[in-house]
Amino acid sequence: MPYRVVINYQEFADVELEKAVIRAAFPDAEIVESHAREAQAFIDESGTIDAALVQYADVNRRVIDAQAACRGYVRNGIGYNNIDAAYAAEQGKYVANCPYYCLDEVSNHALALLLALNRKLFTIVDMLRRDAYHITKVGLVPRLADCTVGLVGMGNIARAFARKLCPLVRRIVFYDPYVDAWEGCEKVTLEMLVEASDYISLHLPLTDGTRNIIGAAEIGRMKPGACILNTGRGGTLDESALGEALKAGRLGGAALDVFAEEPLTLESPLWKLPNVILTDHAAWYSQGAVEEMKRTSAEQVVELLRGEKPRHAVGCPT
């Protein structure tokens, strides 16, 4: 009997590459497309499956129990907080992701945001468009070579970012309880990082332990005029506390690519703050990154169907 695979994507996505990779290995494979995000809708659209490639579906315990024959779930991206990997492992199923596909893109995006904040590019462009530019209105611009950058989280993307930052700044500090050292960077406590940094950049997955890791207390200890960047996961930063600090003029600015709720609602006060740069979870994107993500995720589905451990397994059967 041919294998049955569900590919869970956004409505506008083209999944021909994924289908081609899977069918090159299993020509008779039946491939079902799902656009569901909610658990029950994903169950209903999937039916009985042998493997799943998941983008946004909520793969909770109910889904995992309902899909008893499924060998595992491949997340089409880096983060996999929408999949209960621990429970999947308990039920004998693998969970895998694509951890390397956009390292260059996200680290470049973070660098671009930091430079834009430092040089006040958006402020200057806005003043020019309003015919209101004068150098005295730009505000203080710290020399980047004199600045300290703090990285919260020291995973693959943060490391790529650090390599690009090293020649540009005076000092890079980082906080990560799972990383002891990284070349060119100094490990510190979170409290020390918050107090020492001119720019704080978040590079974290969203877990119970990282939710609002930069909250009102941490923001209150930041240097006057310091800036925050987040290209990791929304929810790791308390956006309400950030907005209050920005409105009060205690911080110099913020640049966010991710939000607690996406897309960011038009009612969010962050839109109205002149010293905030907002991009819509776009840091990962390039044509090359898209193709690599698609191919890597589909190849891991093939590995599952062959009875192999996926190359980037994050959860293994117990």
Task: Please provide a brief summary of the model.
Helices cover 33% and strands 16% of the residues. By secondary structure, it is of the alpha/beta class. Strands 8-7-6-9-10-11-12 form a seven-stranded parallel beta sheet, sandwiched between helices. Strands 2-1-3-4-5-13 form a six-stranded mixed beta sheet, with helices on both faces.
What does this structure look like?
The chain is an alpha/beta fold. It is built from 11 helices and 13 strands. The protein has a 7-stranded parallel sheet with strand order 8-7-6-9-10-11-12, sandwiched between helices.
Strand content: 15-25%
Helix and strand string, N-terminal first? EHEHEHEHEHHEHEEHEHEHEEHE
Which quaternary structure do these chains form?
A: single chain
Shape: elongated
Helix percent reads 25-40%
Gyration radius (Cα, Å) is 22 Å
Structural class: alpha/beta
Q: Cα distance, first to last residue?
A: 27 Å
Count of strand segments: 13
Low-confidence stretches: none
Task: Strand order, main sheet: write it out.
Answer: 8-7-6-9-10-11-12
How can the largest sheet be summarized?
A: 7 strands, parallel
Mean pLDDT: 96
DSSP helix count?
Answer: 11
